[in-house]
Design a protein that fits this description.
The protein is built from six helices and ten strands. With about 190 residues, the chain is α/β, with parallel strands linked by helices. The strands form two sheets. The chain has an eight-stranded mixed beta sheet with strand order 5-4-3-6-1-7-10-9, sandwiched between helices. A two-stranded antiparallel ribbon has the order 2-8. Helices cover about 30% and strands about 30% of the residues. The longest helix is centred in the N-terminal third of the chain and has 12 residues. It starts with a strand and ends in a 5-residue tail after the last strand.
């Protein structure tokens, strides 16, 4: 069965964005781009919420065509254009979006069906509202946190409405030159160490 892997940038005090969605505090560097490139190599489905999808669609489809495109922009743009996109949204409509499926109901059933298909990982970058919905339904198999060296004090929390205990096991960590620390945790079944 395929895994749903969530990756979020977070402040040290547990916020994924400012009160109004601000994200200018997020540190990224070449090491983080290389790291995320390896993650996308192992994923053939990109799961996201409506706001993230609209933000991604406004940049990534043609990012590789820009005259000053970085290696990361070129590689990520090519991946974005070929990856299957799944958007969680109750307000978004449209069947003419290339390589894109919209899920607006029966979230647990629809994501479970996706996980049962043959293929690589299902990956989520950001999308805190969609991530919160998936967390509440216990549909995330791995949590990846990019902990940024900043305290925001308030904002959109990394975790919200967790209704049950989730046992996690540290499966990897990495420190980047920007001061960001990546922590990867796998979902554990109760009773396992």
């Amino acid at each position: 069965m395929r895994k749903v892997k969530l990756f979020l940038h977070t402040s040290l005090d547990g916020f994924v964005a400012g009160t109004n969605g601000e994200m200018e505090w997020i540190n990224v560097d070449g090491g983080i781009f290389d790291f995320t490139g390896k993650l996308t190599d192992n994923a053939d489905t990109y799961l996201m919420g409506r706001a993230t999808f609209q933000m991604m669609e406004s940049y990534w489809p043609k990012a590789c065509e820009q005259p000053n495109a970085s290696r990361h922009d070129i590689e990520h743009s090519k991946w974005y254009n070929q990856v299957a996109k799944v958007v969680i949204s109750n307000s978004m409509q449209g069947n003419n979006l290339p390589n894109t499926k919209i899920i607006s109901g029966n979230l647990k059933e629809e994501i479970t069906k996706l996980k049962q298909l043959d293929g690589k990982d299902i990956i989520i970058f950001g999308s805190p509202t969609a991530a919160h919905s998936l967390m509440k339904l216990d549909l995330i198999d791995e949590y990846g946190l990019f902990v940024n060296p900043i305290l925001l004090g308030k904002g959109i929390p990394m975790f919200s409405d967790i209704t049950q205990t989730l046992n996690l096991k540290l499966s990897g960590s990495k420190t980047f030159s920007s001061g960001v620390i990546s922590l990867q945790y796998e979902r554990q079944t109760m009773g396992k160490n």
